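Reviewers of the previous submission asked for a worked example of the structure-prediction workflow described in the proposal, so we include one complete record here. The input consisted solely of the amino acid sequence. No template or homolog information was supplied to the procedure at any stage.
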Amino acid sequence: MLHPIWREINPQDKKLYGETRALVELIPDDIGLGSDYNGKRVELSCHIVARAFANVFSDHVRCVDGYFSAGFPHSWLETEDFALIDTFPVQMIGGPLLFWKHPLFHMKVTYALYQEEPSVMHGVYKNVGKWQFDRAVGILTDLLIALH
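From that input alone, the workflow returned the following structure tokens.
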């Protein structure tokens, strides 16, 4: 069963969501993303996943950094039509998730659960290392391009 809201979502966002879901399923559980500046394994994160998908679908989405719900640092995608695709949902099994922006609402869906705040990435870079983080994004981007 499709939710009735599915009829309201533009075809391009539906296509992006479908492609995103299919690609997420193909990412190996044990993907090697290199090591951080302490030599520890870089773990797959929402920040890496969102950036890699934004690289693959750069003509149609942007990566947004901020907070989810009660202040969890998080990254997600926003489409040209302001739909939100959460490629790596916080503390959830399943995904990606698609949130639609109703044309009569003046606020984006981010007003409630998703708060844009680019400065959250300072903590991510501090924990992993900027160069190591960018390398991990590149590895995942290359994989997604090959799978796409």
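Residues 130-147 form the longest helix (18 residues). We consider this example representative of the routine output the project will generate in years two and three.
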